[in-house]
Amino acid sequence: MNLEEYSGIWVFLEVKDGQIAPVSLELLGAGRQMADKRGVPLAGLLIGEGVASLAEMVFPYGADEVYLYDEEIFRDYRTESYMRAVLECVEKHKPEIILYGATSTGKDLASAVATDLQTGLTADTTMLDVNAETGLLEASRPAFGGNIMATILCKKHRPQMATVRPKVMKALPPDPNRTGQIIRETIELREEDIRTKVLEIVRETKEKVRLDEADVIVAGGKGLGSREGFELIHRFAEKIGATVGASRDAVEAGWIDHQHQVGQTGVTVTPKVYFAIGISGAIQHIVGMQNAGLIIAINKDPEAPIFQSSHYGIVGDAFEIVPILMEAFQKMPD
Ligand code: FAD
């Protein structure tokens, strides 16, 4: 493989509910910095039906170009059709790097593309950089159960690829004066060539917990002792209008649903305030909440690692401290 042939940084632009998904805009922010460092263009790859008008929207966020596949066959996401578009576009334009959101669509597509191209893919990357001279993507993520941060390189294959979770990178403030070029692509793909058919889209009716959008999170861990003990977290959250979060151990104990889990195998959150109550502060939890504006930990063990990642720490029994806090909030004017 001639690595020199590959140039330019791409972001897969995911479309969700008729809009560009926020994670794609965040990746354009990260991609812009790397493209500037390398002196190469930053492109978006937009696939869908009736999505042409969205292409223009990404230029203010840093893209120089958008490769656009706008065809009926791309109405619904299907691995086979989307993967074919990405593979053809890669073959034709040879990017050095492609970034995807670590969403269910992004993860599915990236892994299918990586397998076909026999190239490397770093999943759930938490930091991205590029070596200006060699062009090597430096994709860092927790490894070995979160005990170390590993920086993963893909030295012999192109494109280099990574998925990044929502809210890990920052979108650039949109610059309305930035414009770019839309490159329309077509594909010879017939419905009969695709084995998967979307018969119906059924939306989950269970109310979705929007931890990633919450301003205040009260998270509880194994230190609450039992399902009944965990009720304290719900009561506190309700009192202060917060969303409930949890450690994996609290989820695995069956005290709360997995959609509340914060961390490496849960959700990455960036609230203004994060209460960590009865949570020890394992690295897998910390990576999911370390970017919160203000972290307040309550733990009865003064040596608990959570205190190293907190702005304020209260050493004590949650069942004594939390009621005091609730009373104090009660007395505060609205
Ligand atoms: P513990 O570690 O048991 O901590 C309980 C804490 O409560 C202790 O610090 C204790 O001092 C304190 N405590 C006890 N009683 C009280 C009391 N009455 N008042 C106040 N404090 C008290 N974990 C996650 O959270 N999210 C993830 O996404 C995640 N992903 C993982 C992925 C992998 C591959 C692996 C290997 C692990 C992952 N984990 C994750 C698990 C993680 O390593 C820890 O096991 C987990 O976070 C511990 O949960 P905890 O802090 O609730 O429990």
Automatic annotation (TrEMBL):
FAD binds at residues 247-248, 261-265, 278-285, 299. The keyword Acetylation does not apply. The keyword Flavoprotein applies. Gene3D superfamilies: HUPs, TPP-binding domain. CDD domains: ETF_alpha (cd01715). Keywords: FAD, Flavoprotein. Pfam families: ETF, ETF_alpha. Binds 1 FAD per dimer. GO terms for molecular function: electron transfer activity; flavin adenine dinucleotide binding. Residues 9-198 form the Electron transfer flavoprotein alpha/beta-subunit N-terminal domain. Its cofactor is FAD. One of its GO terms (biological process) is fatty acid beta-oxidation using acyl-CoA dehydrogenase. It comes from the Bacteria. Belongs to the ETF alpha-subunit/FixB family. PANTHER family: ELECTRON TRANSFER FLAVOPROTEIN ALPHA, ELECTRON TRANSFER FLAVOPROTEIN SUBUNIT ALPHA, MITOCHONDRIAL. This is Electron transfer flavoprotein subunit alpha.
